[in-house]
# Entry
Amino acid sequence: MVAHVRAEAQGDERGALLSFLAEQRDAVRRSVLGLTEEQATSRPSASELSLAGLVKHLAEVEQSWIARARQEPPAVDRNQSDWSDCFRLIGDETVASQLAYWEEVAAGTEAYVRGVPSLDDTFPLPKAPWFPPDDRVSVRWLCLHLIRETARHAGHADIIRESLDGASAWDLVAREQEARS
# Structure
């Protein structure tokens, strides 16, 4: 990605992990910059992915992982019958509403990671065929997993955005910086 992640304060591993996660979130958020709802929900390739769907999916996934770490049920618990709903806007959902929700989720992630006693603290993985039974992971693993998940979809978002109007990640960073000036 084209944005720079500032170096963390000496020994601030939590800050480093959260900064890299925020940078990847920003890349996805920039992908919808200046688009209409129609453009953001369109699927310009054979894939079922849209930019709006990626925003919604990433917000849901991040919230669900933090809930699991807290050993609480996720706000939305998807299964095979409704999995595709996390990749598309439904009802009165909008890109703006999903971005706002993701912002709340991100604040919750930051608070949780900053507040947990240790990045070595563990929690159980959910029961799923792709996870080992009765396994546990650390908060550090959780942060790295969220970075990986978000970065993977940030790459998808780059391709989708370029397919829509030719805007590259470089272009979007420049537009964002111009808007801040």
User: Anything to note?
Assistant: Helices lie at 13-31, 37-41, 51-69, 95-115, 139-165, 169-180.
